[in-house]
Specification:
The complex is a heterodimer of chains A (about 475) and B (about 220). Chain A is mainly α. Chain A is about 65% helix and about 0% strand. Chain B is elongated. The chains are: A mainly alpha (about 475), B alpha/beta (about 220). Chain A: It is a multi-pass membrane protein.
Chain lengths: ~475, ~220
Amino acid sequence: MSHAGERSPAATLTLLDATMVGIGAMIGAGIFVLTGLAVETAGPAAILVFALNGGVTTFTALSYAELASAIPRNGGGYAYVREVFSAPVAFVMGWTRWFTYMIAGALYALGFASNFIEFGHIFGVSLPGGVLFWAGSVVVAFVTLNAVSTAASGSAETLITLVKILILLVFVAFGLQFVDLGEFEPFFRRGNPLTVLPAMGLTFIAFQGYDLIATVTEEVEDPERNIPRAILLSVATTVVVYLLVVFVALGTLGAEGLAGAGETAIAQAAEGFMPRFEPLGSGAALIAFGAVFSTISALNAVVIGSSRVAFAMGREAQLPVALGRLHHRFGTPLVAIAASAVVMLVAVAVVPIRVVGNLASLFSLLGFVIVNLSVIRLRRQQPDLRRPFEVPFYPAPPVLGIVLNLLLGAFIDLTTWALAVGWLVVGAVVYLLLSRRRGEPAVPTGEPETEISDPEVTVPTED
Amino acid sequence: MTESLRVIVAGGGTVGLRTAELLDDRGHDVVLIERDPDRSERVAAEYVASIIEGDAARPAVLRQAQPDRCDAVAAVTDDEATNFAVCMAAQRMAEIRTVMRIDGDPDELYPQYVDGIVSTASLTARVTVNEVVGGGVRSIEEVGGRVEILDIEIAEDAPAAGKTLAEVRLPEGSLIIVDADGNRIGGPETVLEPGERFLVAVEGAVTDEVMNLLRG
């Protein structure tokens, strides 16, 4: 008898690989797709937006690092919350994380499509089909790839990410000489510092990729030490790269230009000052190439991430168990991948990119609130749990993480909230149907603690 | 079945760590309790279980492993009294399957209190006998009281070699269950071909008789 469901991946990812998994997802799309959108909302203060988001994310990243070092499970945030909270809370976490990855996938696919078409323009080729066509195609291509092969090769992903970083650093190196500080005046759009907050909500998804590291923990070497390091290193590196790139883009193209360029903002900034690179051609071509490359690798990362969460939930019977099975021939969670693909395609087809970004950010924020709560609750519930990495200055970072994430969530528009609530209602229906089928009470009545009367303890006192 | 269990393993020595590894290999979730910081660090490096650092026999420590959410507790420290205490405490905290490790002779009343007993002494003895005697006969498992399941290869010149089961009279207290490939249930027409292996359930008292028939 073969136990296909028990196949478990080998520990093959080094600290560098694991760090690159996180950076790959974060630098993937946000920087190319969201920079223009952030500038449109906040003006030159977009640079402050990214700096503050980096700060907010760091608090949650610390929480992730502590949980990942103490709880050896694949499945990311969902697995940790499952350890700490009752089933319904874990379900909400898993349900929203799953959705976040799928939405992020849609966002990356759309970003890919715009930049791919731009890439064609640079070479004077008019590609047939619109943005939707290319976005849909790339989703189908990567879902198929992930459905038939488990070889999400760590070293290939590492190489791709290093190339991305290199392209961006080339952009920064050339651009720094042309930065005009005058472009940063006035710093706040319409002189209003509050425009920073909605822009933060909009672009928050840019910094949510590091939790992908937590979905592949069992594949990392020396995981109890390397995973916390990889999480923190990837956040730090990403924030630095973002700030440099946004600084250069703002200082060269200016806020108005960037805002007008939308998803291809960075490529247009590059056009202004980059020399030619043979055989690629102009600087814009190099950046467009980087963007196409990056959005593809980020898309690949979230396809893996989303299927892992659905798979973990299926195994715990929190979603239909078919999602928690590996395919007998391919050895991949085929049903989980296919289900993710359907939602991604729907999001690509019907939801505008700005709403897609908002929705993904909102669910990220909510998920991160629960993760921070988990750290606090786990410290109380299991004080003697071995924590190879501990959040410094506890409890300040998780508390700040909760407060700031909620604050940012409050600045996301009502349409997005309505869509979010809609998805949660769908989740509630699924949950109730599944728990009825399992024959369990849907909501446990309080903590199931066995009552044991306290025995009398006589403490000897010295007279 | 892909449904995973949640198991508490009390004791992070060699036995505890190996138990946790095997459970993790099969996709189950493990919470391990270990008192000694050096040993718990060793287990942490394996990354197969979350670890509660403390004395598992203390209810305040055991409760942190959340027995009410677990399917089983395996108390496998090298101290029998601790293991028994862990099982008893876990049972009072939750409905949970209890398995304890003993090193010496078992207290005959243990089966009334715990669901499973692992005797390291008899396990070691059985494996030792398997290794010493070699390939022909392997003890698979002690079912409970006196019955053992043996994996026996029919020897070339054994009395029963080449005969059907109808022709051979196995002693009362023994039963050929299935050939070792697991393909055929033993029946009257089953031929005991030399070189083939069979799983045989044997009561201790007739073991040598069965051996004589099948091994010569």
